[in-house]
Amino acid sequence: MIPDYLEEVLGNVASDATGELAGYIPELAAVDPERLGAVFATVDGHVYSAGDVDAEFTIQSISKPFVYALALADSGFDAVLGKVGVEPSGEAFNQISLEEGTGRPFNPMINAGAITVHSLVRSEQLAPDERVARVVRGLSAFAGRPLGVDEAVCASEMENAHRNLAIAHMLRSHDILTEDPRIVVDGYIRQCSVLVTTRDLAMMAATLANRGVNPLTGEQVVAERVVRQVLSVLSTCGMYDAAGDWATQVGIPAKSGVSGGLIGALPGQIGVATFSPRLDSHGNSVRGVSLFERFSTDMGLHVMEVPAAARAIVRSNHVAGSGLREVRVLQLHGGIRFAGAERIDREVVDTAPSEPRVVFDLTMVSSIDDVARRMLLEVARRLRVEGREVYLVDPEAMIPDPDPGDGGRFEVVDDLDQAVSLPHEVVARNGRPGAREWNP
Ligand SMILES: NC(=O)CC[C@H](N)C(=O)O
């Protein structure tokens, strides 16, 4: 189904020969402009592909978000943010402009930012070639296989690097760079010359979509907090001066490169990559942009698509057992985050259960985040303060440590029958509070 779909969409854009090859790097102007490929990589490592997906090309600017991640991991947020901002510049990728006053590049996705970021990978007095080695190793970890450098493209770009050298000298004059600008540009251009396939790019994007864990190797390449930063910057600055159009029409955090690659990362879902060398006036792949527009529309991939309300979080609220064994059961369901936990809280407040025992049945809960976990434990804690016995049916340990913070852990049982048939001493001792008292 998905491979057929990919073939079909490639067929739809194949005849579009508009756009130009990147002329300012002679080696790039020599590639076959007809190449075309697309890959979807799921967060559990499954790959769907169509077209030319194993041909190698240089990564170019698609290296920027990944090296930004490495710099954040190596040098820390404060050091990196002190030198490179996170504001969309609305300018071309190679614009020679810096933030007034601070001299900082606007963001890490334009060349000024990326050159600075390169200098922040393992900055503690690392020799320049060791820094490049660290960058190549880091990019390889994102891809899940060892990557190499295209020396011919690297030399070709280095010979024509006047503009990037101008940018680097300007950065040096503002003390944003503190070392020889030529050495940093040399390292940055080597970073851009790392060879990848469309399949590699999709896996790199999937690693971002998978909270920084490579779906193939299982390696946590960078921390989740770093991934959040990178995806945020991609969604505002990834497509240069076309970022606003892209954010509204496609809505997938994405990054393009002048060799014709394009990646998109959909948090928690998939990594997408396309390859087609002819570029539009922003330097983005023409057919790549068309493909992403189609993927977004056909597959509903826009990140701002609002999901159905978490209405069904409380699947049922009923009484089980009878007499002294009467138990109020709240059966929960699905993935619970802030809004879902709020529904549970309101359900308990609104229905004010009068039964002596309350059971939260988490058997059908698929996930619960930290905030929701704390909120649910607080709902349970307040029930206990009101004199109820609270049980959690939690066979899969969705709440591994059911302690609301006062040291009094809630009783966890494996199924509802167990909760209903447990002896009733505590309740008998505490008595049965009326609904009136339950109103925080
Ligand atoms: N947009 C790009 O891919 C630019 C990368 C290229 N190496 C440059 O610095 O000009």
TrEMBL record:
It is an enzyme of class 3 (hydrolase). The keyword NADP does not apply. It holds the Pfam family Glutaminase. The keyword Cell wall biogenesis/degradation does not apply. InterPro entries: Beta-lactam/transpept-like, Glutaminase, STAS_dom, STAS_dom_sf. It catalyses: L-glutamine + H2O = L-glutamate + NH4(+). Residues 327-399 form the STAS domain. Its EC number is 3.5.1.2. Coiled coil: none annotated. Homotetramer. This is Glutaminase.
